[in-house]
Amino acid sequence: MTTTTKRIDLSVPEEDPFFYIDNDTLSILDKVDLISKRHPLNVLVAGRQGCGKSSVVRQYAAVHQKPMATFQVGILSEPGQLFGEYTLENGETRYKQFLFPQALQTPNCVIHLEEINRPENPKALNMLFSILSDDREVWMDELGLLKVADGVVFFATLNEGDEFVGTELLDPALRDRFYVILMDYLPNAVEREVLLQKTGISEEKADDVINAINLLRSRSENGLEISTRITLMIGEMVAVGASLKEAIVTSLQTTKENLESILLSLQLESGHRQKGKTEYVRYTKNVLRE
């Protein structure tokens, strides 16, 4: 049995020029960077869906010019799956090393464990315990002793709650290894500024979108989490000429009945009335050219 390794150049992500976080989170991230100069550490970023958890990890790496690697925990079904797998090549069994061992041995690397509480099998996380503990090493027969390099920061992100299908409560013994950053949606004024900067929407229409989003968020009976991501999707649609109704219909993932209730609420309380009836037209190349 032989081991095959293909090295990949880990790159520093591009910085988002319009990324906003609160002062408390900024201060914590500064401290994280200082501690990482002493030893590797683990940071858990928790919060509502679409509030910027993954984005803050990427921005941290960009700001501090650190290489970054992201791993989807949701695809893991057995221990060791992050590290590699056995394959059969030309009648010979080979162990194919994945990117994870390279990333954890790369100095100053930011390693993002995305949705850490969504593995197909919770036991798939077992080999992370040694990597995330004070020892910072793990032995594998196929790869030998793997040690976490200096300056490595492990960021884990998660959505936690009954509404998230396929999630597990994070093992307390694993969670105990992390510093925790709690995130929430941006305040209205900041979210409006992000909307203006990232979508090119007019100020008047940005106000319409923010007012509609506030109304939707206030109606908990709809069972919807209106994230900043969805706000930007709606803003992009409106910026290219869609009506607010069109933008909401195409951006919200919900039932037809719930959508009709949402639109009725907007119509009655915000004055976003839609005139005329729906028309059907042909969708062909010739029609598009006219």
Protein traits:
290 residues, alpha/beta, five-stranded parallel β-sheet, three-stranded mixed β-sheet, 10 strands
- CA distance, first residue to last residue: 64 Å
Strand content: 15-25%
Sequence of strands across the biggest β-sheet = 3-6-9-2-10
The gyration radius over C-alpha positions equals 23 Å
Shape descriptor? elongated
Number of strands: 10
**Averaging pLDDT over every residue, what do you get?**
82
Largest sheet: 5 strands, parallel
Number of helices: 11
Task: Walk me through the structure.
The protein has a five-stranded parallel β-sheet. The chain has a three-stranded mixed β-sheet with strand order 1-5-4. Strands 7-8 form a two-stranded antiparallel sheet. It has helices spanning 23-36, 53-63, 99-104, 128-132, 172-175, 188-199, 203-218, 228-239, 244-251, 256-270, 285-289; strands at 2-4, 41-47, 68-72, 84-89, 92-97, 110-114, 137-140, 144-147, 153-158, 179-183. It is elongated, with a radius of gyration of 23 Å. The chain contains eleven helices and ten strands. It has 290 residues and is of the alpha/beta class. Strand 7 and strand 8 form a beta hairpin. The model is unreliable at 161-168 and 272-276 (pLDDT under 50).
